[in-house]
Known about the structure:
There is one protein chain. The mean pLDDT is 95. It is globular, with a radius of gyration of 19 Å. Helix 1 (42-49) packs across helix 2 (56-64). The chain is built from two helices and 19 strands. The chain is 7% helix and 36% strand. By secondary structure, it is mostly beta strands.
Amino acid sequence: xxxxxxxxxxxxxxxxxxxxxxxxxxxxxxxxxxxxxxxxxxxxxxxxxxxxxxxxxxxxxxxxxxxxxxxxxxxxxxxxxxxxxxxxxxxxxxxxxxxxxxxxxxxxxxxxxxxxxxxxxxxxxxxxxxxxxxxxxxxxxxxxxxxxxxxxxxxxxxxxxxxxxxxxxxxxxxxxxxxxxxxxxxxxxxxxxxxxxxxxxxxxxxxxxxxxxxxxxxxxxxxxxxxxxxxxxxxxxxxxxxxxxxxxxx
Length: 250
């Protein structure tokens, strides 16, 4: 029969800025590139985060009029889930934001420049072989990018792209501009767990039987070391981060 179409405010993720005791219901995100637990509906961003509207009706009208872009494309679905590393642009003002993990709040919009809004970081979740022997990169936000290879038996064009590494892609064309491997001395941001939003340089990776049982040790800018699950590691740069971070984060 499928899942429920509605979501009670008390059941919404704790980082959503909604009034749980004042209203019974809230917006349930549409099925899309991000799960409910790792995204915020576009309507809530417009009304409660950016405060471009006072009511849900006003926010829905602004959205359906095409005033907002997600990853370079106008989105008119007020339930569209905005999640990790998504780029939000306001068409009329030229403002741009990126959704990144932050301590305590879990996820938040960080203002970025117009130049930075032209690209996005995506983590490679897995790789598959498709028709013709080409390699498909399956990314964290549901995107699929096919790497064309000349020799399927020796796909040298795709060997550098490894699972849990990060690709920098252009928006909205999603051409690959840069690749950040998952290895020691790489800068990474933590996307979940109790260390969510912390940034550090990878010092060691202890692989377990599965991804969530693998432990990564990082060192922050103050020299403090901390550990987290490999599932939460998101590479963001080699020497310096490729994205704008909250002030003082790195």
